[in-house]
Amino acid sequence: MEKNEKTSLAVQLQTPAKRMFWMEWRGRSITYISVWIVILVLLSLLWFITSKGLQPFLNGEVTLSQFFSSNWNPQDNKFGSLYIMLGSFMVTICATIISAPLGISAAVFMTEIAPKWGKKVLQPTTEILVGIPSVVYGFIGLTLLVPFIGKFVGGVGFGLLAGTLVLSIMILPTIISISVDAIESVPQKYREGSYALGATRWQTIWRIVLKTALPGLMTAVVLGMARAFGEALAVQMVIGNVPNAPFDFFTSISTLTSMITQNMGNTVPSETFNQILWSMGLVLLLITLVFILLIRFITRRRDA
Amino acid sequence: MLDFPFVKKRDPELSNTVTVETKKLNVHYGSSHALKNIDLTLYEKTITAFIGPSGCGKSTLLRCINRMNDTIANAKITGDILIDGVNIHADTIHATGLRKHVGMVFQKPNPFYKSIFENIAFALRIHQTPKKDIPVIVEDSLKRVGLWEEVKDRLHESALQLSGGQQQRLCIARTIAMNPSIILLDEPTSALDPISTEKIEKLLQTLKQDFTIVIVTHNMHQAARISDYTAYFHLGNMIEIGHTEQIFTTPAQTKTEDYLSGKFG
Amino acid sequence: MNAKLIDRFATLFFYAVAILIICTLIGLLGYIVIHGISYISWEFLTEPPGSYILGQVGGIAPQLFNSFYLLILTMIITLPIGIGGGIYMAEYAKPNKFTKFLRLCMEVMSSLPSIIIGLFGLLLFVQYTGWGYTLAGGALALTIFNLPLMVRVVEQAITAVPREQKEAALSLGVTHWQTITKIMLPVALPGIVTGAILAAGRIFGEAAALLFTAGLSSPNLDFTDWDPTSVSSPLNPFRPAATLSVYIWKVNSDSLSTETAAIVSGGSAFILICVVLLFTIFARLLGRYIYRRLTSS
């Protein structure tokens, strides 16, 4: 009798198992498929862009040294893209030089100087800034900034300066929000220790808060740079799109993204020019990956 | 020596049918050894209380019995747990079937963000209870925890509007609706006021007629009041288990006595 | 004394920065409003575009429709995959090498420049499939753009669900999967809805990923024809479709600073900003509303 009861319990424990097991298995599989879709999309993106970008070199139409020279003349089949790449770097670096101090200062303001007021006003401000589409930034740059520079500062208006200013506003919210996270994660006791030693607020911010938050702040700046480097339309609209040497603020230049945006639709896939645009896309992709690795390196050092 | 105003007298008619048995049970969380060689026997339709200072392993043991520790990634469990002679870690046993059989009530009342009715009906539906039986079971469970009169007019309002004590009784109702044979309670009254606590303690005495009950409690007086057996845990060891009357009057181990007399813990 | 003086200057500087940033935003929004609001009319919203090179302003009806339609198509593809992925990351991912790799993938994907996604879309959804410029291609490109964000939104929303809710369901013998879908997802819903609408705002303004996938043009749409297989039907997913953002870019790059271009793009930019801001506000309000409904009956 007792033995029977025991078997019936064992049976009872097992009966719903099969149904439950399959239900769980099915659900788990759905999520597994979802993440594999993400992985496969990314891997195929990397593969397609890489193979397409390497094509002109593998076909022997252009050599790497030609590609990395400054001799650009598509009519004459010269595709030296050095100035274009430098253009991307210049506009990114200049925008970061403006935006990083401003963004970090704004983050300090929100966390250390006036947390209540700062959060209430600056937080929504950055959220709205981040939501403004890049064509709108480009449109404002084109219709407000470019004529203004042309009239009052110098040159025709298009060029490095206009690109820099537009980008510096665009990457500002990125830098602010990540800097705020970094500064907020500095333990309160560090600040108290500093004030207890008689330091002023500025000394505490400069010597303790910013120093401790440095890896996070670096992440913020690098992410901002990555965003600036990859931004296409807003830059294309104000930069002028002539592949000049990018060392003068007032002459029109080109960047990798502006070149692709401008010409991808106007060339046919059989042209070398078109294939070179894909190579530029590959360079853009690789530099973006370098930025991501850099961020990983910074954050890993902080965790260690 | 020990002075507890209310200690439950030993009930001579306690069942001696074994319900749960653990053999050389060890639990590791990563590198920490949470339970050490536990040999425990629980009898049918009795209340057993687990007491001991924080971190002594009493909750860990409780969560082994319905395999809730499965959800913790780095938990490693060795040794056997038998329920009615069936090894619950056998390949053929699915945790969902086991947990239906071994219910659990938590420290913080945790009703679902659903209506009072849905709180009980939800799991019934998952376990394919016939549709026409559900309202009957809901009413019956609510009556058994003494909540029916209080909520029968607002069954379809949010369970979160109930008071803490009502919420906890709803959680108990939700558990007994599954018709388990064992109910595990993890400090069920520690978040409640004294009146709600008393209600739940009384409730457990009536539920004892149908279920085997295990209660982890931080409150020694509660263990003394309601349980038939008491087990004392310390640093992952089960120091002593026995009839509540014996543990609270003449404990065999000095460690138990030190704890109960308030020397530490 | 010196330190105190520096401290005071520093404080002044921080206030100046804050005010500068706020003024920049006000300036930007003000500029858009001033250069846009006067061009908005019923005709502008409901008529097809004129040929702006010839000085005809016309309207933005097809572009506006395309933007919303593309957004809906994108969300239909993104939501299931994003929710699936988010559930995996929050509940099933074990701390192992695969999960680390997965997180790296998400990180890379979320930092890809949108023009790169556009290039990939051009290659795969335009050239390789032979579809040409289509809404479907645009929606798939935007899905790639949006997916990592959606996964993160869902993951965070699920992780924020109280552990007690999950334990309650598991302890009743409910499977992990049913616990997630029937108990945790409803609790996580306000967070997911808010995040999804904020993402929608981002999609609505996106243009770079669409230039080479959904294209720069729009066929003449017949708003009385709702058969998705018909060529002139607005619902046909295999037709080219310039969105509002793409249209702004195109107008400006086709005709450098002419009067008409300024009117068309000013009005369009104003509408674009309004929609994006509405999304932001709507996201917060709806999230709060769902949360209230969930917690009180």
Explained architecture:
The complex is a heterotrimer of chains A (304), B (265) and C (297). Chain A has 2 domains: 2-58; 67-303, MetI-like (MetI-like fold), CATH 1.10.3720.10. Chain A has 13 helices and 2 strands. Chain A has helices at residues 2-14, 17-58, 64-67, 82-113, 115-131, 134-153, 160-184, 188-196, 201-212, 214-230, 233-239, 256-263, 272-303; strands at residues 72-73, 78-79. In chain A, strands 1-2 form a two-stranded antiparallel sheet. In chain A, strand 1 (72-73) and strand 2 (78-79) form a beta hairpin. The longest helix of chain A has 42 residues, at 17-58. The termini of chain A are far apart. Mean pLDDT of chain A is 90; it is low at 1-6. Chain B has 265 residues and is of the alpha/beta class. Chain B is 33% helix and 25% strand. Chain B has 10 helices and 10 strands. A 6-stranded mixed beta sheet of chain B has the order 6-7-8-3-9-10, with helices on both faces. Chain B has a 4-stranded antiparallel beta sheet with strand order 2-1-4-5, with helices on one face. In chain B, a hairpin with a 2-residue loop joins strand 4 (75-83) and strand 5 (86-87). In chain B, helix 3 (116-126) crosses helix 4 (134-144), helix 3 (116-126) packs parallel to helix 6 (164-176) and helix 6 (164-176) packs parallel to helix 7. Chain C is mainly alpha-helical and 297 residues long. Chain C has one domain (35-295): MetI-like fold (Orthogonal Bundle). Helix content of chain C is 71%, strand content 0%. In chain C, helix 7 (163-171) packs antiparallel against helix 8 and helix 8 runs antiparallel to helix 10 (259-295). The N and C termini of chain C lie far apart (61 Å). Chains in contact: A-B, A-C, B-C. Chains A and C meet through helix 2, helix 4, helix 5, helix 6 and helix 7 of A and helix 1, helix 3, helix 4, helix 5 and helix 6 of C.
| CATH superfamily descriptor of the domain at 18-113 and 180-260 in chain B | P-loop containing nucleotide triphosphate hydrolases
Q: At the fourth CATH level, what is the homologous superfamily of chain C?
A: MetI-like
Rounded to an integer in angstroms, the radius of gyration calculated over CA atoms of chain C is 23 Å
Cα distance spanning the termini of chain C? 61 Å
Q: Low-confidence stretches of chain C at least 5 residues in length (pLDDT < 50)?
A: none
* Biggest interface, residues from each chain: A-C, 86 and 91 residues
The proportion of residues forming helix of chain C, as a percent range, comes to over 70%
Task: List segments of chain B where confidence is low: pLDDT < 50 over at least 5 consecutive residues.
Answer: none
Structural class of chain C: mainly alpha
